[in-house]
Design goal:
Elements: E1 5-11, E2 17-24, H1 45-75, H2 79-84, H3 86-104, H4 116-126, H5 129-142, E3 148-154, E4 159-165, H6 171-175, E5 177-184, H7 191-194, H8 198-205, H9 211-222
Antiparallel strand pairs: 1-2, 3-4, 3-5
Bound molecules: 2-acetamido-2-deoxy-beta-D-glucopyranose and fe (ii) ion (FE2).
Amino acid sequence: MALRRIFQKTSITSGRALCAAVLRLKHTLPDLPYDYNALEPHISAEIMELHYSKHHATYVNNLNMAEEKLDAAKATNDASAIIALAPALKFNGGGHINHSIFWETLAPATGQCASGELLAAIERDFGSLDNMKAKLSGSSVAVQGSGWGWLGYNKEENRLQIAACANQDPLQATTGLIPLFGIDVWEHAYYLQYKNVRPDYVKAIYNVVNWDKVAERFTKAQQ
Ligand SMILES: *[C@@H]1O[C@H](CO)[C@@H](O)[C@H](O)[C@H]1NC(C)=O
Ligand SMILES: [Fe+2]
């Protein structure tokens, strides 16, 4: 997440340097790397359009708004206003990060499978790819209410792990796991198509995993 600031120095004729406006780069909705209908029949175009253009876009807008308020609170040194913004930053920042990972680790069904170093690590840490999927599915299905199931990388112990989060805490900050692949089990991710049958949605999503991308994220996480 880019929390970069650009400090612009503007020289004025007298030669005095003036430290001018602090510009914050706004977060933007990342491009969806495929069409809304590209994951059908596993995830419907209707879900994809709503999920991306409404839900994810709202996280992005609200994150930008919360950051603007944060700038204002900082400018006036208002500690209680700064603290009060924490939940909005966490919720919308978390939503933006999670969904950005989600879109890029999905892809039209090609029958591709985990391979290479990623597959070797999965087999080492879970016995087999099927065992890993079963464990990730089980954790995702078991999330009470809204949340995510994750395949993550524990860098300290150099192993892959499954985690499920029902609250709003970001995966990395609370579990130390670097997120590799996440399953969004908020109802907005499946209800229009799967109704209350979350297990069917979780089962179907394995048809549209972009394993190459997950492997790429694994390689980066190890660096
Ligand atoms: C983002 O993922 C974290 C970790 O799984 C989760 O706790 C949180 O609820 C998610 N946030 C949103 C808005 O989906
Ligand atoms: Fe979502």
